[in-house]
Design brief:
four-stranded antiparallel beta sheet, 2 helices
Length: 93
């Protein structure tokens, strides 16, 4: 069993307050959970309204399968125009 951990930093340019940021996050993270069945959450910058750090984990039988699924989740997250990814760190556990 392989576990791939991914941490991404995003900027949410149009968020004018924490309420707007949380609305964007809730919608995107809920869709990601439903579509990919991954554990995903905001793990940093909870008090910043235009910046967020998202973490998710993918569990798979093989490294190739884990990489493929993590890449699909990243592509899905990048498809939302509300935010832009700036940093990504991945790790195998």
């Amino acid at each position: 069993m392989m576990v791939r951990s991914v941490v991404c930093e995003f900027l949410i340019y149009d968020a004018t307050n924490l309420k707007a940021k949380r609305a964007v996050l809730k919608r995107i993270l809920t869709r990601a959970r439903q579509k990919f069945n991954v554990s995903i959450a905001e793990i940093g910058y909870q008090d910043k309204w235009q910046r967020t750090e998202i973490g998710f984990a993918v569990i798979s039988d093989t490294r190739i399968q884990g990489e493929k699924e993590a890449d699909q989740v990243l592509a899905f997250l990048d498809s939302f125009p509300e935010w832009e990814r700036h940093q990504t760190e991945t790790e195998w556990l």
